[in-house]
Amino acid sequence: ELLQLVQLYQCLNQVYDGADAACRLKHSLEAHTEPVYSVAFSPDGKLVASGSFDKVLHIWNVADGTLIRSHEADGGIFEVCWSKSGDKVAASTSNKSVMVLDLRR
Length: 105
What we know:
By secondary structure, the protein is mostly beta strands. Helix content is 14%, strand content 39%. The strands form two sheets. A four-stranded antiparallel beta sheet has the order 1-2-3-4, with helices on one face.
């Protein structure tokens, strides 16, 4: 689940950075109404995108767990990924389409 991946990411960062390796739940990211099929962290690690069969792409702030932006797709979302620069998120849907969300707008 999305929550577990965020927790794992934060734990790995703590270990990598030499900080306290004890992992604690940071935030509960709850907005999807169907199972989450894909999550991806932005290149700088500050945002996470989540896609679900509820046809919604969510963008979350990793630091405080707030939902920053949502976008409805034309089908269930199976895969999300970030552009190298971190200003766009692409999502593939069950309707065999790909949408690109430009976060600069």
